[in-house]
Design a protein that fits this description.
Blueprint: E1 4-9, H1 16-25, E2 29-31, H2 35-44, H3 50-53, H4 55-75, E3 80-84, H5 87-97, H6 103-111, E4 116-119, H7 137-153, E5 158-160, H8 166-176
Parallel strand pairs: 1-3, 1-4, 2-3, 4-5
Helix pairs in contact: 1-8, 4-5, 5-6, 5-7
Amino acid sequence: MQKEIIVLLGGPGTGKSTLINELVARGYCCYPEISRQVTLEAQQRGIDQLFLEQPLLFSEMLLQGRIKQFENALTEPDNIVFIDRGIPDVVAYMDYIGDAYPEHFSKACEDFKYSKTFILPPWEEIYESDTERYENFEQALAIQEHLIETYKKYGYNLIEVPKDTVENRILYILDKI
């Protein structure tokens, strides 16, 4: 079996981390979303919202972290690796806020390709804001559109995961692999 590096994507609050946690509980190799870690590290240094205050620096840190996740996934002994958000997410968010970014952001999207991409649709009933998720639901919808546009621009076929129980969403994903 060839290596499958699978990304779960979607706007904020669509259930990606919940699915990753369940996949981990079932023994799958999974890499968590790293933006919360980057945000928390910045907060410890006194920067409340690095993405809002220094979006390019934040995005550069995310890009490097996601490239490292991809490279690490290639060396995993597991044939299937799930990742919570992918490299093109960085470009989508920069486009969402309307900021320019260096060419190497786009090059990374072209150089590191995921095997499959599962997109989780916006779901207002499960959406929650917290200290790291500052977007409201309307902003989450706009981000979702940027994600779809960006992933399609880089040639991905997005597989939409239906709104359903965690169990049924997991079964849907596993069935499509």
